[in-house]
Amino acid sequence: MSKSGLEFSVSDHVVYPAHGVGTIQAVETQEVAGMSLEVYVITFDHEKMTLRVPTKKAKTAGLRPLAEGNVVNQALTTLKGRARVKRTMWSRRAQEYEAKINSGDLISIAEVVRDLHRAENQPEQSYSERQLYESALDRMAREVAAIERIDREAAIGILTKSLVKAA
């Protein structure tokens, strides 16, 4: 916790479950229905979006700091694992993948990337599989990029290396 008693400070990188990595631009006090409300102002450059999250509700909203090194290593190890594809209908699996991506949990996101990754010698993905794969890969790459202080493309390179090793 910072000096102000807040969990995050201006310019911290944070992860918001539904949107991925953002940056805290400010902590503001806003008048809402005659009450004062302190909010984190978070920008998500890749979505050109700004979100205001009440500081008191940040934890319950799932706002978290970037993953620690051990979590990143675990996520990279997950990528190297064997794909686990359930034999349920695609619509059900797609919902589960979507839920994992939006959980904001790096290891869950890594599971989606692993399960939907296709090596060059494997059959083509459907459009919706490709969309979910791209979404999960992008979410994971942005967090790895922020942690390692590299750009998204370099992070995708790291992730792809882990996936190729697995194939």
From TrEMBL:
<protein>
    <submittedName>
        <fullName>CarD family transcriptional regulator</fullName>
    </submittedName>
</protein>
<dbReference type="InterPro" id="IPR048792">
    <property type="entry name" value="CarD_C"/>
</dbReference>
<dbReference type="InterPro" id="IPR052531">
    <property type="entry name" value="CarD-like_regulator"/>
</dbReference>
<dbReference type="InterPro" id="IPR003711">
    <property type="entry name" value="CarD-like/TRCF_RID"/>
</dbReference>
<dbReference type="Pfam" id="PF21095">
    <property type="entry name" value="CarD_C"/>
</dbReference>
<dbReference type="InterPro" id="IPR036101">
    <property type="entry name" value="CarD-like/TRCF_RID_sf"/>
</dbReference>
<feature type="domain" description="CarD-like/TRCF RNAP-interacting">
    <location>
        <begin position="7"/>
        <end position="117"/>
    </location>
</feature>
<dbReference type="Pfam" id="PF02559">
    <property type="entry name" value="CarD_TRCF_RID"/>
</dbReference>
<dbReference type="InterPro" id="IPR042215">
    <property type="entry name" value="CarD-like_C"/>
</dbReference>
